[in-house]
C-alpha cells in the first residue's frame, strides 16, 4: 500500500495549528515529516494479508502443541489513534505434520497489529489466519495489552491490562485442552 506522505504532512501541520501551536517554530519544523514517516511504519500492515507470512510450511510429524509466547507488539487504537502495546501468545496443534517456522507466528502478529486496530480483532484475526493457512487441530491465542487511551486520557488508569482470547478447533471443543494450553501460555 502506498502512503500519501504529502497529505499526512499537511494533516499533521493542520493538527498542530488546530491545537494552537505554531508549526513554523523551530522545534516543530520537521514534525509533520517525522510523524508522516512514523505513521507509514506504524501502519505498514495495511493492505497486507497475514496469511502470506505463513509461506514456510514444513512436513514434520509433530501433532502436539506448539507455542510461541511473549511476542511483543505495538498497535494503534482505531478509536483514538493512540498506541496500545503488549504481548501475544500463540499456540497451535499441527495436523498431518504441517508446521510453520516459529518466527512466522510472530510475523503474523506483527502484520495484524500494524494497522488501526482493536485488540479483540487482533486476537481473532491471528487465530483465523492460522486456521485458514495451516488447518491445525486447534489454535489458541491470548493477547495482553495496555491501552494508552485508558492510560493518558479518559479514565486515566495506567497499568490496567486487557486480556483477550480466541480459540479454534479442539480448544473450543474441550475445556480441559483449553485450560491446559492457557496454563502453558500464561505460565
UniProtKB/TrEMBL annotation:
SUPFAM superfamilies: Tetrahydrobiopterin biosynthesis enzymes-like
EC number(s) given by UniProt: 3.5.4.16
Record GO cellular component, one term: cytoplasm
One BP annotation, GO: tetrahydrofolate biosynthetic process
Pathway(s) of this molecule: Cofactor biosynthesis; 7,8-dihydroneopterin triphosphate biosynthesis; 7,8-dihydroneopterin triphosphate from GTP: step 1/1
Family stated for the protein in its record: Belongs to the GTP cyclohydrolase I family.
Domain GTP cyclohydrolase I: start-end pairs: 9-185
PROSITE patterns reported in the protein's UniProt record: GTP_CYCLOHYDROL_1_1
Reaction it catalyzes: GTP + H2O = 7,8-dihydroneopterin 3'-triphosphate + formate + H(+)
Pfam families, per the entry: GTP_cyclohydroI (PF01227)
A single GO molecular function term of this UniProt record: zinc ion binding
Protein's name in the database: GTP cyclohydrolase 1
Keywords: GTP-binding, Hydrolase, Metal-binding, Nucleotide-binding, One-carbon metabolism, Zinc
Binding site for Zn(2+): 77, 80, 149
Description of how the protein assembles with itself and partners: Homopolymer.
Stretches assigned to coiled coil: none
Enzyme class, spelled out: hydrolase
UniProt entry tagged with the keyword Metal-binding: yes
Keyword Protein transport: no
Segments crossing the lipid bilayer: none
Top-rank taxon, per record: Bacteria
